[in-house]
Write a structure and sequence with these properties.
This protein has 1 helix and 5 strands, in the order αβββββ. The model has no long low-confidence stretch (mean pLDDT 91). By secondary structure, the protein is an alpha+beta fold. The protein is globular. The protein has a single domain (2-77), classed as SH3 type barrels, CATH 2.30.30.
């Protein structure tokens, strides 16, 4: 089970790195505290694997958001 979790994390990191390198537009479904769900069309600016934080640029609102990997419900590459 731990190997499956590590494989899932590794594949997520690979998708993040690829989207960041290519400047690909992605859509994140994020679950914030108190049941708040956000759907963010964005580009990845930075990823810190140690803290598992992702800095993304919301292309509609022109804002930068900080998202933790644990908050991501869905990761869609456009």
């Amino acid at each position: 089970m731990i190997a499956d979790t590590q494989d899932a994390y590794s594949s997520m990191v690979e998708m993040i790195r690829k989207a960041q390198t290519n400047g690909t537009l992605i859509r994140l479904s994020v679950l914030k505290g108190r049941g708040v769900k956000l759907s963010i069309p964005c580009k990845i600016l930075n990823f810190d694997p140690e803290s598992r934080n992702l800095s993304v640029y919301h292309v509609d609102n022109k804002q930068v958001h900080l998202v933790n990997l644990y908050e991501i419900d869905e990761f869609i590459v456009n």
